[in-house]
Amino acid sequence: MSPAVVEFMEDLATDVAKQRAFREAPEQYLADSRLPEQQRQAVLSGEAEQVRSMMAEHSSVKERPGAIIVVVAIAPDED
User: Fold this and answer.
1) What integer pLDDT is reported at residue 78 of this predicted model?
2) Which pLDDT score is estimated for 54?
3) Is residue 55 packed enough to be buried (19+ CB in 10 Å), middle (13-18) or exposed (0-12)?
4) C-alpha to C-alpha distance for 43 and 35, rounded to whole angstroms
């Protein structure tokens, strides 16, 4: 697995324009990324465990038993 997945997910989590582009055309957004096919498929699957496992391989942040994960959802812009 490529460590590019951590950078990809960090960028997606923090950049509103990238979030919008991903939301509008996820397959195209991923095709334009540096991620290997296996990682693209994991992201597209929407399965949190696949993504978490993939990122754990390349992140200095490790899960701790009993830790709480907070997910922030961003509503789409009303145009």
Assistant:
1) 65
2) 77
3) buried
4) 10
Residues 6+ apart with CB under 8 A from 47: none
Contact 29, 8 (CB under 8 A): no
* CA 20, 25, 28, 34 torsion-angle sign: positive
Q: What is the pLDDT of residues 2-44, one digit of tens each?
A: 578 888 888 888 899 999 999 999 999 999 998 889 889 988 8
> How many CB atoms are closer than 10 A to CB 35?
21
**Distance between CA atoms of residues 77 and 79, nearest Å:** 6
Please tell me the distance from the alpha carbon of residue 21 to that of residue 14, in angstroms, as a whole number.
Answer: 13
Q: What span, in angstroms and rounded, lies between the C-alpha atoms of 60 and 23?
A: 27
